[in-house]
Input
Amino acid sequence: MAEVRARGVIIKQSDYGEGHRMLTVFTEEYGIVKAVSYGVKKTKSKSASSQFLCYGDFEFFKNTNKDIMTIKSIDTLDGFFSICEDIKKLALSVYLSDITYELLGMNNPDSRLLHVFLNSIYALAYKNEDVQKIKTVYELKLMCIGGYMPSIHSCASCGSGAVSAFDLLKGGMVCRQCGGKYLINMDKNLFMALQYISESEDKRMLSFNAGTDILKRLNTLTEQYISLQLDRNFPSLDYYKAMLDM
Ligand SMILES: [Zn+2]
Output
């Protein structure tokens, strides 16, 4: 068995058997990997470090003939515990993890996406940002990084510069002639927010002001854009929205 070291964050956990836990870890070096943590309920420290959103240095044992590794140790750098105490933030983190997994898949390293994910989790845990702002910004950045950057300045269909609305299916702004069934109306403020997030440096992605109304419309746009482009729904999004309405 080979030993593998990686820095990463746990994006999914599920308990099984006699106190074991299956972990999905988004690592810098290997992308998203799966690993089993045995006997997590026996020791408190092991249980705490094998939790959802635990960020740290992982040591794995790797079997040559198996995809799933075994956790040897986890050296925690941050547990983001304040998120787990807030049901809205926790529900949002589960959804953000789901869309990340869906887009990236297994064993596909993407350092840029990992850092955007971690910045979003950090903002949820420690910064006084609107959760809806963190959600929509991550959704759009994820799509931009994952190869679904929307066309902003020219029609996604014909290339004309006279764009007027956002077409969710065609993948960006479109002109009046090209607009299809999945149009979202635009105004200047919504367009500026869309442009800012798409084109801003990752570390400045939350550094803009937008009112509640713009954030609401932007959230509708980005979540529907993901759902249509990836052709699936996310139950964790429905759960998050139910928590948000409480
Ligand atoms: Zn057009």
